[in-house]
Amino acid sequence: MTKRALVTGVTGQDGSYLTEFLLDKGYEVHGIIRRTTSFKNEWLDEIIDNQRYKDKPFFLHYGDMTDAQGLIRVMRKIKPTEVYNLGAQSHVRMSFDIPEYTGDVTGLGNLRLLDAILETGTETRFYQASSSEMFGKVQEIPQRETTPFYPRSPYACAKLFAYWSTVNYREAYHMHASNGILFNHESPRRGEAFVTRKITRALARILSGKQKELSLGNLDAKRDWGFAKDYVEAMWLMLQAPQPDDYVIATGETHSVKEFLTQAFELVGRDWEEYVKIDPNNFRRTEVDILIGDATKAREKLGWKPKCSFKELVYLMVREDLKREGLNPEKYMKGT
Prior knowledge:
The protein is of the alpha/beta class. The chain has helices at about 15-25, 40-50, 70-80, 90-95, 100-120, 155-175, 195-205, 230-240, 255-265, 295-300, 310-325, 330; strands at about 5-10, 30-35, 60, 80-85, 125-130, 175-180, 185, 215, 220-225, 225, 245-250, 255, 275-280. It has two domains: about 5-185 and about 225-250, NAD(P)-binding Rossmann-like Domain (Rossmann fold), CATH 3.40.50; about 195-225 and about 255-290 and about 310-330, UDP-galactose 4-epimerase, domain 1, CATH 3.90.25.10. Helices cover about 40% and strands about 15% of the residues.
């Protein structure tokens, strides 16, 4: 019997990589997309136009995480064997500007999806995309599944609500529902508002003459950065496990924004200090100073470990953004 997966947030970085991963595994994949005036999405177009997936069962359905009845209709129509909830307002800095919307989509959206599963009696396994931001003002280093949470943004608070809702439904209704507490994971498909992609895209535009400087905030913030393509495998592994559980997914290394900047600009022989301007508007109201995860549990129980190193990740992102700007990476990048 062909497994059938429902993916929310299918148009994002994780959703697109997960879709490709599941299609390669022989799944029938269904994605929920919001109705907009534009039909174009770069990552979905890559999948749809890729000959590798041309004849694979990939379907899109209009829906919204704020529409409970719509989610119920989609659930009843698809009857998925696995549900991956990646849909969210996921930008931390922006969550301070739109806190209510963030809570509605990121927090209550998860609850609506869990209720849709119950309402339709769907026999499925459920994955909730939780976040290392829930640790916030960290209570121990490194952070593991037992580390107390201390959220420092509306986004983190919403993710914490979704996390505990997932745990509660697992215990109250005996659902196979798992939380993946994913630390920062990046890729060439990362949204342009996120700091890593903001850096690599700006670097490419500076080299092409389209941009003169880059505006950033706190360069001392430290994050545990992995490769998104590695992390979607961990999501899948959680739903293949006999019992549901919650897992930290991380590299176990931490690097500052300044280190990312240095690594990216050195690849093309430039000094980032000549181009970067610090803008107070880019600082968070309450900062998360350091995140570093301990993925021992995932390694021991799921057999998961990251494959891509920090330097390889930066290299990959810089290379792809140079190509997007029409630049030849072999001409600009050291060691290419």
